[in-house]
């Protein structure tokens, strides 16, 4: 519009002339104004047609915005027709401009998208966060609208840790950052995790500066691994190494602690540069070995669980961190197992007696057999020397035969006590399972040994070179073993003489009791102290002499 000072007198005095000239100037400007494809311009809605809205953009021909170019949203025709009305100012994008044919196609949604991409570029370059609303869940992540443009939020970028369930985020407004932008491909990648990591980093820095060694903290277990557990402390995760979880024994940490559990721990060390915090749960519990002597004195009984079996014994957990060993020799009074598994099983609850304690070496010796009466203490009273027994052969060696006296207790019949005639190889005469009769010679409860004799229950051998009339009556020669000096001493026995007795063995008659059976000294069965046959033979000879004297 021209200034009043530049108007001619005719123009100033005639408004119609001025309006006409202004209209001509505007028309010339419209004829001269051109638009090109890709331009973003502002126009005024003139009227609505069946195909769209006509917009005055300052050219000689109005442009048209087709209904499908109004918005990205899928709306019915009735809703689209209500989006604009005559007189509205609208920013449009020139899709096609053919001034000669008078056809100009405009797009409102393309203009909005263009402006959105400009804004997105600014956000991307500056790294500024923006709040978006999640529209839907798709394969691999979520879809959100940012500045009217569809953007993809991968599942790995939703939270600090991958979240398998994403449905809960649909419809929520969340703060994100643009981590990838490509307008040509129409690609916009978002990340919520980036913002969370920045927030966590600030919290971590603040927390690390406040933590001190020896401080007690509380947190939630967020991960359980083979080497330990991680505890969330509010911005930083502290590591409790498996050796610092408990004083007790375990194979995997998950046996004693679980994910999500709230625990208290003691700070062992803090490395602010490496953002590492080492914690200890067991440090808040006293070491059980400190008070073991007072709590479990020698001779006391304890209850525990078998936690390990080895070749030499069984380990029993009395309480977490306090384990004792039951040596294989302390498992039973009577059984001699080759492995503790023959008596105990892992996980079994047992009662044991404290035998020895060494707190400095952290050793606790236990006994299982001490919880039961010792059968060896009463064995000599139940089986005095001379008591006959019957049992099965349990073992064979070159030096004798082992026979079961009672369940769990064995006795040895030395080769010299197997028969009147020496048996060089017992395995050729006996076999396991054979039932054998024997007599008790000696019992040593301290060494847990029983000496037996089989030959003392056998009838004595009859010499083959004596006549029928020379054979002793009533078994008087029961003690003879075929030696020359004994064969020549039959008549002397009738006179009460004992000169015919052999000299190759000595007798010990100091232990003869009321029953006429001597108590035998310990040692090998080969050096037994009494021969029952000789003793009874002498007694019978004396009776014969008395009968002959009465007849005379």
Automatic annotation (TrEMBL):
SMART domains: S1. GO terms for molecular function: mRNA binding; structural constituent of ribosome. Transmembrane segments: none annotated. GO terms for biological process: translation. Belongs to the bacterial ribosomal protein bS1 family. PANTHER family: 30S RIBOSOMAL PROTEIN S1, SMALL RIBOSOMAL SUBUNIT PROTEIN BS1C. This is Small ribosomal subunit protein bS1. The gene is rpsA.
